[in-house]
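lol forgot to send this yesterday, sorry. struct tokens for the thing we talked abt
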């Protein structure tokens, strides 16, 4: 049951990140992950792992897509500006940034969901 819930949450995150990635700035994806993990009330460890992997992989796939479809080679030029990183090395940097950002967003969202759950439980017992 819990693995189905985690897979469902990951699927919802991926769909939202794809849609938001097309129409919104990058930081909206962090807000989306916080909302999804808070509403789903995942444990902190589950939220951290799920959101880190999902955001890291979505950003990596997006970077690969943009790298292949960009005739101006913006990603490789950006990598050169960051100390001469090749396109592959820059993809690794994007993956790490996605992992760290996803981990922090998942941690915050899961903790927020647990906080709301505790406050709701306290109010019902009063």
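and heres what i got for the seq, position by position
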């Amino acid at each position: 049951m819990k693995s189905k819930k985690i897979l469902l949450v990951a699927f919802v995150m991926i769909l939202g990140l794809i849609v938001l990635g097309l129409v919104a700035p990058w930081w909206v994806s962090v807000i989306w992950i916080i909302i999804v993990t808070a509403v789903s009330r995942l444990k902190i460890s589950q939220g951290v792992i799920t959101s880190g992997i999902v955001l890291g992989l979505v950003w990596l796939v997006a970077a690969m897509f943009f790298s292949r479809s960009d005739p101006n080679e913006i990603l490789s030029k950006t990598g050169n500006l960051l100390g001469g990183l090749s396109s592959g090395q820059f993809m690794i940097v994007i993956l790490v940034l996605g992992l760290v950002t996803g981990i922090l967003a998942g941690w915050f969202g899961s903790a927020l969901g647990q906080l709301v759950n505790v406050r709701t439980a306290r109010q019902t017992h009063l």
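The chain has five helices and no strands. anyway ping me if u want another try
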